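During the second half of the funding period, the structural biology subgroup turned its attention to how the target accommodates small molecules. The most pressing case was acetoacetyl-coenzyme A, which had performed well in the primary screen but for which no bound structure existed. We therefore specified the complex as follows and requested a full 3D prediction, including the ligand pose.
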Amino acid sequence: MEIEAIGVVGAGTMGNGIAQVFAQAGFAVRLVDVATPTLDRARRTIERSLARLVEKGRLAAADRDATLGRLRTTTELDDLSGVDYVVEAIVEELAAKRALFTSLDALLGSEAILASNTSSISITALGAATRRPDRVLGMHFMNPVPVMMLVELIRGQATSDASVGVARGLCAALGKTGVEAADYPGFIANRVLMPMLNEAFYAVMEGVGTPEAIDAVMKGGLHHPMGPLALADFIGLDVCLAILTVMQEGFGDPKYRPCPLLRRMVAAGHLGRKSGRGFYTYEP
Ligand code: CAA
């Protein structure tokens, strides 16, 4: 299957990175979001990220211009008609994602493949919201998307080998490696990562250490590039809460229960970097 045009739905942290890497790899990208300010912010973020590469001599100015020329932003989902492959990166809520997949299924040609960047939600449930569950799969990028070389590929109950093959080919075109994970809550990355972050939240709540001390131990003592609390702020505390909730409900196992401190911070609107405040504070 020859893929030329890619749709990305949701222009937040992950969506803008996903749009950038596809445009850099030569695909025509249409980036959709309901909010114009989010689209404007996404374009600025992409411009900054590409400018950094030009400054470092890793990207020619002409390639930066060509990349930006391949990127179109829009608030109209209908503008995706005719694309071959869509990556959904909207809010981490099953009902919202299912409604979007049903709309995309009605809008797109029968050959088009629908991928979700979900961190934890069932790909099988998203496939079941369409008439093409064989052409629905998970394509889970890592943040920051331009830097992280790995993509989790998740097969729902009905996902075909052909669809996984197309996604693998796209990963290769992006210079990334696709690794398959089965469709269980949290897949591989968050199954392993979230219990560690949650434990770090409990450690703060119980006064085991300050956020600075906990992060210093994990960075200096275990060579993690970021401490767990800085990483949680980076991911978004609301996203961490959503993922842990999916895991707790999906497995019915109390070991995944979100830490009460995390719930309280999210209720306060302290969502991490994107809101300027989480375990740390950030310049706007
Ligand atoms: N876009 C483009 N390039 C970026 C970037 C961005 N948003 N952020 C950083 N970079 C580049 C920098 O330009 C720099 O490039 P050079 O080495 O070529 O100079 C490089 O990445 C390193 O950046 P910095 O020197 O600024 O800072 P750093 O060394 O502290 O690295 C980091 C920053 C790459 C984010 C690093 O701290 C890191 O790897 N952190 C862990 C990130 C992680 O675990 N991500 C996965 C989160 S989980 C997830 O995404 C999935 C989920 O479902 C929750």
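Two results from this model are relevant to the next phase. Strands lie at 5-9, 28-32, 71-74, 85-88, 113-116, 136-141, 150-155, 177-182. The two ends are 43 Å apart (CA to CA).
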